[in-house]
Amino acid sequence: MSCQSAVYQWTEVVTTHMPHLSKPQAAVLALGSRGMVLARSCALTAVSLCLAVGLDRKANTVRQQVREFCYEAKAKRGGPRQELAVERCFAPLLAWVLSWWEGNQLA
């Protein structure tokens, strides 16, 4: 499976569990999180280099895209941009994690 198709598939999963995100937000979240898995690191340089190779893109372009994900809207480049309301992500993310939880005890 190509890196691009893996990112598309993961974007669908993210969109299913985080329906409040816009399509671009879900796509960048999927891109960054998939990159962390592939790079086996959460370091932005490692993630962007790994994704750049797999997607045949420039590393700095991928780096900027992933980096701007959590910026406030006015700090993002380009046309109309939205900032991510992190507070709205907590409940869906917790529900997603708990859907995989086995047993009766929580950490």
Description:
The chain is built from five helices and no strands. The chain has 107 residues and is mainly α. Helix 3 (44-55) packs across helix 4. The mean pLDDT is 87.
Low-confidence stretches: none
**Beta-strand residue fraction:** under 5%
Spell out the helices and strands N to C: HHHHH
Radius of gyration: 15 Å
Tell me the major beta sheet: none
Distance between the termini: 35 Å
Indicate the mean pLDDT: 87
Key attributes of the depicted protein:
107 residues; mainly alpha; 5 helices; 62% helix
What is the gist of this entry?
It contains five helices and no strands. It is mainly α and 107 residues long.
Please describe the topology of this protein.
Layout: H1 3-17, H2 23-39, H3 44-55, H4 59-67, H5 87-99
